[in-house]
Amino acid sequence: MSEQIMVTGGGAAGMMAAIAAAQKGCDVLLTERNEKLGKKIYITGKGRCNVTNACDTEDVFKQIPRNTRFLYSAVYTYDNFRVMDFFEQHHIPLKTERGGRVFPVSGHASDIIKALAQAMEHYHVKVRLNTRIRSITKQADGTFAAVDAAGNTYTAGKVIVATGGMAYPSTGSSGDGYQLAKRLGHTVTKTTPALVAMNTKEDYIPRLQGLSLKNVRARIYDGKKVVYDDFGEMMFTHFGVSGPLMLSASSLVNERLSAHPLQLYIDLKPALDEAQLDRRILRDFDAFYSRQLKNACSRLLPAKLIPVVIAVSGISPEKKVYEITKTERGRLLAVLKRFPATLTGFRDFPEAVITRGGVHVREVNASTMESGLVSGLYFAGEILDVDALTGGYNLQIAWSTGYLAGMSAAEALL
Are residues 164 and 352 in contact, defined by beta-carbon separation less than 8 angstroms? Predict the structure, then answer.
């Protein structure tokens, strides 16, 4: 089977690459190892699909902690506003939520996949599902030969590899693309889970399982150095900490936490400085003057957090409020402003949103997404060593690199 352009991987980057190439008039074949397209898109944004972010395009780069400059051409070629236009032109109305996160109004990720599938059908992209590409080689005549797991061979003038990373392997992300890239001579940097929950050491954290906290500040220390400081929402789990604040933290402290434990402090009352919080505690203590401490914090903390905070402060929960000394009150205040947990490591790929690491960007032309080692070979999406924080930015990288790879491959052919 011979096509002008072959795209391997039917996720966000692969589908966008196929559409971009087909729009230029090329014959395009897209192969996908799963039984349906966009399997990972179905679970993004808790099944609602955080398509992109409505921030100024320049601000997208502030959410990409590494290899940022590599993405300038891709993002400016196909920015977040063009992404929003694409889906709205395909009759998927969008809405913007807290933090600029953009979702389909319907709340269904399936609508995003339908729009992409319809666009591919409109531009006559051929799609082969249940097709896992095992090898890609460049032929003497300059074309590529790809062989699937069933032994079928496909030839193409250009190949775009958009097979994803290793996060959520249940969606088919098994790292196949890394092996294809290595066999074609590319360097693949160390791959680790990113945007992933973190394990903690303290035995009191599992007691908070399921508790979500909004509007808290998290600081992570490596020794005396603050390596992460942000404000937002987080959640406690049976193993440690998760939620948007912690997922973003995981990407920014990746190398440090891979080397050794880090100290997390959560400011449970960031809107109040210590003097204001002390006055607030005194007001509550006046209201519950004769109660035991464990029954006097209901205005201050969620019920699940009260016994843990008191235990960490070292005050007896049975102690009457009027018996609490100024020193003890100071200890309680300190825990409210610096609730401690020791981060010991990351959860694994099945729980990670994305992969950190991938095809080395120095071996890829940032202006086209073409390999600098093998002409006619392109990369797009998570297979590249680029990743961003939460908020729709990783999908934006997929759309942008996919579009640029598809457009560049088509222009090189035509």
Answer: no
DSSP 332-398: HHHHHHSEEEEEEEE--GGG-SEEE--B-GGGB-TTT-BBSSSTTEEE-GGGBS----SSSHHHHHH
Give the integer Cα–Cα distance in Å for 186 and 203: 44
Q: Which long-range contacts (CB under 8 A, 24 or more apart) does 94-98 make?
A: 94/51, 96/54
Q: Give how far Cα 9 sits from Cα of 31, 76, 325, 378, Å.
A: 6, 23, 64, 12
Q: Select from 144, 130, 254, 140 the least CA-distant residue to 198.
A: 254
Question: Of 26, 23, 29, which Cα lies nearest the Cα of 6?
Answer: 29
pLDDT for 322 equals: 93
The answer to whether residues 178 and 383 touch, using CB atoms and an 8 Å cutoff, is yes
Tokens for 378? 């392109």
CA distance 175 to 125: 25
Question: Cα-flanking dihedrals φ and ψ of residue 5, to 5°?
Answer: -135, 135
Q: Letter for the amino acid at 120?
A: M
The DSSP secondary structure of 40-85, one letter per residue, reads: TGGGGGGGT---EE-S-HHHHGGG--SSTGGGHHHHHHS-HHHHHH
Q: Sign (positive/negative) of CA torsion 108, 114, 119, 125?
A: positive
Q: Which residues fall within 8 angstroms of residue 142, CB to CB, at 6 or more apart? A: 157, 375, 376
- Tell me the CB-side half-sphere exposure of residue 84, using CA atoms within 13 A: 20
How far apart CA 341 and CA 266 sit, in angstroms, is 8
How far is 147 from 152, CA to CA, in rounded Å? 6
Integer Cα distance of 134 and 21 in angstroms: 23
At 162-213, the pLDDT tens digits run 999 987 676 666 788 999 999 999 999 999 999 999 999 999 999 999 999 9
Q: What is the pLDDT of residues 109-128, one digit of tens each?
A: 999 999 999 999 999 999 99
Q: Which residue has the tokens 């939620």?
A: 243
Strands 240-242, 198-200: parallel, antiparallel or unpaired by DSSP? Answer: antiparallel
C-alpha span between 146 and 156 (Å, rounded)? 8
Higher-confidence residue of 43 and 41: namely 41
